[in-house]
């Protein structure tokens, strides 16, 4: 979508027009942005790295969280 160079705030503004939820490994996002002002929810995957081997065990928790997150909220999985 050509968003690779976008910073967090701009990225979230773009995403809210296309998606209901964002998934990230950026644990600082909630401290860097006022996520409550955006019309999409978020899930932060808390893992040792963003390698698939570290993220794969979190997928079941992620699936459970998908229906729990309302716009403007961020949860962890």
Features:
three-stranded parallel β-sheet; 77 residues; alpha/beta; 14% strand; 4 helices; single chain
Topology:
Blueprint: H1 8-16, E1 21-24, H2 29-32, E2 41-44, H3 52-55, H4 59-65, E3 74-76
Parallel strand pairs: 1-2, 2-3
Report the span from N to C terminus.
Answer: 26 Å
Order of helices and strands: HEHEHHE
Helix content: 25-40%
Q: Into which percentage range does the β-strand content fall?
A: 5-15%
Task: Give your account of this protein's structure.
The protein has a 3-stranded parallel beta sheet, with helices on one face. The protein has one domain. The chain is globular and about 30 Å long. The protein has helices at residues 8-16, 29-32, 52-55, 59-65, and strands at 21-24, 41-44, 74-76. The protein is built from 4 helices and 3 strands. It is of the alpha/beta class.
Short description:
This protein is α/β, with parallel strands linked by helices. It has helices at residues 8-16, 29-32, 52-55, 59-65, and strands at 21-24, 41-44, 74-76. Strands 1-2-3 form a 3-stranded parallel sheet, with helices on one face.
């Amino acid at each position: 979508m050509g968003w690779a160079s976008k910073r967090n705030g701009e990225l979230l503004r773009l995403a809210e027009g296309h998606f209901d939820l964002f998934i990230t490994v950026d644990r600082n996002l909630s401290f860097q942005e006022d996520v409550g002002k955006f019309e999409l929810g978020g899930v932060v995957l808390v893992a040792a790295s963003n390698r698939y081997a570290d993220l794969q065990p979190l997928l079941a928790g992620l699936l459970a969280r998908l229906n729990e997150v309302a716009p403007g909220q961020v949860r962890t999985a």
